[in-house]
Amino acid sequence: MNKIAVYVKEERKKAGLTQEEFAVRSGLGLRFVRELEQGKETVRLDKVNQALAMFGKEAVPGKIGED
After folding, report:
1. First vs last Cα of the chain: how many Å apart?
2. Residues 6+ apart with CB under 8 A from 4
3. 30-58, pLDDT tens digit by residue?
4. Is residue 20 within 8 Å of residue 30, measured between CB atoms?
5. In this predicted structure, what is the pLDDT of residue 20?
6. Residue 64 pLDDT
7. Cα–Cα distance between 56 and 54 in angstroms, integer?
8. Where does 1-67 have alpha helices with state H?
9. Model pLDDT, residue 4
10. What pLDDT, on a 0 to 100 scale, did the predictor assign at position 66?
11. Which of 4, 13, 12 is nearest to 43 (CA)?
């Protein structure tokens, strides 16, 4: 699973939110949240950033392999 998928899933659980609750609060669709957490490789970056914004984060360009 990719790092963003793991991060979103872990942070959502820490916040005590179900996928459904997270979807509603973030303004994203439940299907997108499920696919994101499953590590689907073809997701829209704007929606990824919308999910990450719930935790004060955003996806930015970086070198491959950087943590």
Report:
1. 15
2. 36, 48, 52, 59
3. 999 999 999 999 999 999 999 999 999 99
4. yes
5. 98
6. 82
7. 6
8. 3-14, 19-26, 30-37, 45-52
9. 94
10. 67
11. 4
Residue 58: Cβ within 10 Å count: 12
Cα separation of 14 and 8, whole Å? Answer: 10
| 35, 37, 43, 45 alpha-carbon torsion, rounded to 10° | 150
The number of C-alpha atoms within 13 Å of 38 and in the hemisphere containing its C-beta is 10
CA angle 61, 41, 24 (to 5 degrees): 90
The tens digit of pLDDT for each residue in 2-29 reads: 899 999 999 999 999 999 999 999 999 9
CA gap 2, 64 in Å, rounded: 13
